Amino acid sequence: MTLSAQEASSLSTRGLTKSWLTCPTRRRPPHEPNCLIQTEWDLTPISLRVQGEREGKSAMTLVVRPARPDDATAIARVQVATWRTTYRGIVPDEYLDSMEEEPRARYGRDVTSRDAEAAGKPFVVVAEDTGRGVVGFAAAGPERRGDPHFCGELEAIYILQEYQRQGIGRRLVREVVQRLLQRGFNTMLVWVLAENPYRRFYEALGGSVLCSEQLTIGGKTLGKRAYGWDDIRHLAGTPAHASK
Is this model's pTM higher than 0.70 or not? Predict the structure, then answer.
C-alpha cells in the first residue's frame, strides 16, 4: 500500500512520511491532523531492561498510576527528552533539536481527557517519582489499523534516560497489559524503529516480528518493525527470564 497524495503531502510537509511495505493484511489508517506527533508517540524508543539499583543512586518512591490531564506537560517533556537521548545519531539532529513540547502536551491533554476506562479508547499510565514528578509513561489501547488478530496495541513507552534500567519499564508494561486484559484484549502488538537499540527486549518478552514498514523522518528513510503477542496474559506478571 502507499499513501494517498493528500496524506503524503500532509506528512512530508512536517518532515515525516510513511510507506506501507509488507503488511498486506493491514489497512491504512485514516489521515489524522496529529499524525506527526502520533507517529513519534508510536516508536517506543526507551530501554525496558531491568537491572538492580545503580551504585550511588538513592532509593526512590515510584508510583505507577493513570495519567491525568495535568500530567500532559510532563509527559511531553519525557517524550521529547527521550527521543533526543535515544535517537541521536539515528534520527537527524535537526529534527530532534526542533522538537517542541507544547504541541505534544496538547495532544497528551486530549488523550488523557477522554474516558480512558472505555474499552474502545486509548489510555496513558505514568511512572511518577514522588521526589521529582513524572519520569516515564506508557500509552496503549485498541489496535488502530483494524488488524483481524491483534486487538490491543502498546502505542508508546518513554522513560527519562537517568531512570532507565531500574525496572520502571517493566512496571509500565505490566500495568498496560493488565488494563488491556480488563478491556478484553488478549493479543497485542507494538511498533519499534528497526534501529532501536532496545528492540530485542520485545523479543525477550516473547514478541514475534510481524512485518516491516518504512517512514521518513527529517528527510531520512528509516525502517520500523511490528512485534506481536498472541496471548499477553503472561505479561501481566512479566516473567523473570524476560527482565534482562
Answer: yes
DSSP 46-76: S-----PPPTTPPP--EEEEE--GGGHHHHH
- From the list 102, 85, 4, 83, the residue with the least C-alpha distance to 44 is 83
Return the C-alpha torsion angle 171, 181, 190, 168, nearest 10: 0
Instruction: Return the exposure string of 96-108: e unless at least 16 CB atoms fall within 10 Å of the residue's CB, then b.
Output: beebebeebbebb
Cell digits of residue 29: 489508517
* Domain range enclosing 22: 5-48+60-242
What are phi and psi for residue 65, nearest 5 degrees? Answer: -150, 165
Residue 54 located in a structural domain: no
pLDDT digits over 141-170, tens only?
999 999 999 999 999 999 999 999 888 988
Domain count, the chain: 1
* CATH number of the domain that residue 10 is part of: 3.40.630.30
- List the one residue out of 232, 25, 42 whose CA is nearest residue 147: 25
Judge contact between 26 and 224, C-beta under 8 A.
no
